[in-house]
């Protein structure tokens, strides 16, 4: 008993609603496509409802027919990704213009060559990028985003804290991004917290030094820098009477 013929589903796409799908629909009807899914979106658009419906509709053993490869894929890399997806699901791809048929050895070989070309394209792009960076470095230019002028950041901070402008208004006025502004504000807060913590520690050591001076039987002149807590612990162990008021 002969195996049933593969179900053929078509896919057609035009870039704008003003363009007509008639020519593609007529071409897809000739090989016997029972159902054709369509999209009217740009070739660079990722979201394609018709293509998604097609992927959900076809089953293993089915065949997807397109008039040309550019109707299905956004780029060479995307084409190979689509083909791998079809292959994993057991679905064949046929392109009428390029005479590509993944059910044949010729079609599979053609896709293999496309894969080699895509890999070469990626490597050439990486080489060009590396060469550009090396040339910029040799001329003393540093890659990446330029640093924002500290004066501009401070101006933005003052404007944001001391006016009724929103963050978006301030950023538009001084020409920086919201992320840059809030990152700078957070940096200023961290500096303030660190300075406050350091000042508290110094004040505590001075207070301990005064306690030692008052509590000791003989006046003690504390050194300019010392560990106040360690000194207190030592004096307590020696039984030296101390004033315990450390509420600072």
Features of this protein?
alpha/beta; 2 domains; 5-stranded mixed β-sheet; 5 strands; disordered C terminus
Report on the structure:
The protein has 248 residues and is of the alpha/beta class. It contains nine helices and five strands, in the order βαβαβααββααααα. It has helices spanning 22-29, 49-57, 69-72, 76-89, 105-138, 150-161, 167-174, 178-215, 228-237; strands at 8-14, 35-40, 63-66, 92-95, 100-101. Strands 2-1-3-4-5 form a five-stranded mixed sheet, sandwiched between helices. Mean pLDDT is 79; it is low at 215-220 and 242-248.
**Largest sheet, if any?**
5 strands, mixed
Spans of at least 5 consecutive residues with low confidence: 215-220, 242-248
Rg of Cα set? 37 Å
Task: Please report which band the strand proportion falls in: under 5%, 5-15%, 15-25%, 25-35%, 35-45% or over 45%.
Answer: 5-15%
Mean pLDDT across residues: 79
Shape, please?
Answer: elongated
Category by helix and strand content: alpha/beta
Q: How many distinct domains?
A: 2
Number of strands: 5
- The CATH topology of the largest domain turns out to be Rossmann fold
CATH architecture type of the largest domain: 3-Layer(aba) Sandwich
**Widest sheet, order of strands:** 2-1-3-4-5
Question: What is the name of the CATH superfamily of the largest domain?
Answer: Resolvase, N-terminal catalytic domain
CATH class of the largest domain: Alpha Beta
Q: What is the helical fraction, as a range of percent? A: 55-70%
**Total of helices:** 9
- Helix and strand succession? EHEHEHHEEHHHHH
N→C terminal distance: 96 Å
């Amino acid at each position: 008993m002969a195996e049933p013929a593969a179900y053929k589903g078509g896919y057609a796409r035009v870039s704008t609603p003003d363009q007509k799908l008639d020519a593609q629909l007529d071409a897809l009807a000739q090989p016997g496509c029972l159902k054709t899914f369509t999209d009217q979106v740009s070739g660079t658009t990722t979201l394609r409802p018709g293509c998604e419906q097609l992927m959900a509709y076809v089953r293993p053993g089915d065949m997807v027919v397109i008039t040309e490869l550019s109707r299905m894929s956004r780029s060479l890399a995307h084409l190979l990704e689509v083909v791998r997806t079809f292959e994993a699901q057991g679905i064949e791809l046929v392109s009428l213009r390029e005479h590509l048929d993944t059910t044949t050895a010729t079609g599979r070989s053609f896709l293999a060559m496309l894969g080699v070309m895509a890999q070469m394209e990626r490597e050439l792009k990486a080489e060009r990028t590396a060469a550009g960076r090396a040339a910029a470095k040799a001329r003393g230019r540093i890659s990446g985003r330029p640093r924002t002028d500290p004066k501009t950041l401070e101006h933005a901070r003052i404007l944001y804290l001391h006016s009724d402008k929103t963050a978006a208004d301030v950023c538009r006025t001084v020409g920086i991004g919201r992320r840059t502004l809030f990152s700078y504000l957070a940096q200023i807060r961290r500096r303030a917290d660190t300075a406050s913590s350091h000042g508290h520690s110094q004040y505590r050591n001075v207070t301990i030094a005064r306690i030692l001076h008052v509590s000791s039987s003989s006046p003690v002149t504390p050194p300019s820098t010392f560990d106040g807590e360690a000194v207190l612990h030592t004096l307590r162990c020696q039984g030296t009477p101390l004033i315990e008021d450390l509420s600072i």
